[in-house]
Amino acid sequence: xxxxxxxxxxxxxxxxxxxxxxxxxxxxxxxxxxxxxxxxxxxxxxxxxxxxxxxxxxxxxxxxxxxxxxxxxxxxxxxxxxxxxxxxxxxxxxxxxxxxxxxxxxxxxxxxxxxxxxxxxxxxxxxxxxxxxxxxxxxxxxxxxxxxxxxxxxxxxxxxxxxxxxxxxxxxxxxxxxxxxxxxxxxxxxxxxxxxxxxxxxxxxxxxxxxxxxxxxxxxxxxxxxxxxxxxxxxxxxxxxxxxxxxxxxxxxxxxxxxxxxxxxxxxxxxxxxxxxxxxxxxxxxxxxxxxxxxxxxxxxxxxxxxxxxxxxxxxxxxxxxxxxxxxxxxxxxxxxxxxxxxxxxxxxxxxxxxxxxxxxxxxxxxxxxxxxxxxxxxxxxxxxxxxxxxxxxxxxxxxxxxxxxxxxxxxxxxxxxxxxxxxxxxxxxxxxxxxxxxxxxxxxxxxxxxxxxxxxxxxxxxxxxx
Length: 467
Known about the structure:
The protein is α+β, with helices and mostly antiparallel strands and 467 residues long. The protein has two domains: 3-327, Peroxisomal Thiolase, Chain A, domain 1, CATH 3.40.47; 343-356 and 391-464, CATH 2.40.50. The chain is built from twelve helices and 22 strands. The chain has helices at 18-25, 43-55, 81-87, 105-116, 138-142, 190-211, 228-234, 261-271, 308-313, 321-327, 343-348, 350-353; strands spanning 3-10, 14-17, 33-36, 63-70, 95-100, 122-129, 146-153, 159-168, 174-175, 184-185, 220-223, 278-284, 287-295, 316-317, 357-360, 367-368, 385-388, 392-401, 411-418, 423-428, 441-450, 457-464. The strands form five sheets. The protein has a nine-stranded mixed sheet with strand order 5-4-6-7-1-8-13-12-11, with helices on both faces. Helix 6 (190-211) crosses helix 7 (228-234). The radius of gyration is 22 Å and the shape is globular. The mean pLDDT is 94.
């Protein structure tokens, strides 16, 4: 039986209190806070880092497919799923697909993976969203950023699929055209009343009927929604108990994370599940998707890399709206030294930049980065063996750069000694400058370095371990 083999989530470190947004515009605050992607993060990096945790110690070469879901993909015309697969070091003979342009892209990718997975295969479903609400609107307070990922397979299943249901219906609730920078929606409660409420109820009812279950049979439900209040209103016609059966939407702590939300909520449910539990997940947008899973005995031995709740607790609170505005480029700023890049470099050094490969000397065994022809230790001259580097280590040395222009000064340049060998020169992120110390444990996180020459340039940065 196909089902969920493993799962992972990624929540950015920064939080923006909604009171700060309201104070900036002199409008009422909706309360709570929202998760904010750092200036070097986007939907792709959110999905990649969630996928790294979802894979854990699994061999990425075993993946038969990678599906990426987002409404805010970094490119308008370039596949993001193949970038995710490359970063994870998956094989070239792999099915990659992007799911986009609808909020239920995350659940649609999940249902597609459940339909397509074959015996012995594993498919990765990942989602990331960093949606922009127009300044001085309720949407600006509503949206949050996050990433989620699931590995779907037929062996070692933690939660086997019982049944799925999907429906599609033309509905103009929230939209954004090629010419629009921000999402648009019909004013008032039009979308919730005539779209979200109907689609969620239909999806939940449909999957329960198809599985021969009642709402009382469900142990926990992960149901995406623009807010906790909207979700509760949508479930009034059903028999699900919001307090005991339905997972909180994290609206007060993270916000509405778009396509990633149902995967993040599902992960939160799985974290607390036990064998025999029946779990329901539902997403919406131009219709609805739903699936029911039964937790297996394998869940009792599953080792989670990083929980949703621990990531919510570890945070950095933004002190001003201005910093958020710099992160999102809401103000015009001319940088004196624009970054440049070229597809030639990205092609030539692809394995070093994305999956972070280094070189190992066949004579002395020294691991080094980047990959040289001549060993830096013993002088061996006939090339190095390409190896995958670890993504954890310790800070060897660092310097704070106050001259380089950045939305989050200063820029900290760091030299990291990786576990298992190899030393890399990277930037440090998600860390106050006064917390940086030689010898501190760090982990590598996939980030956006710059957008020189109109190209999204990604590489690895270091951040404090377990942050």
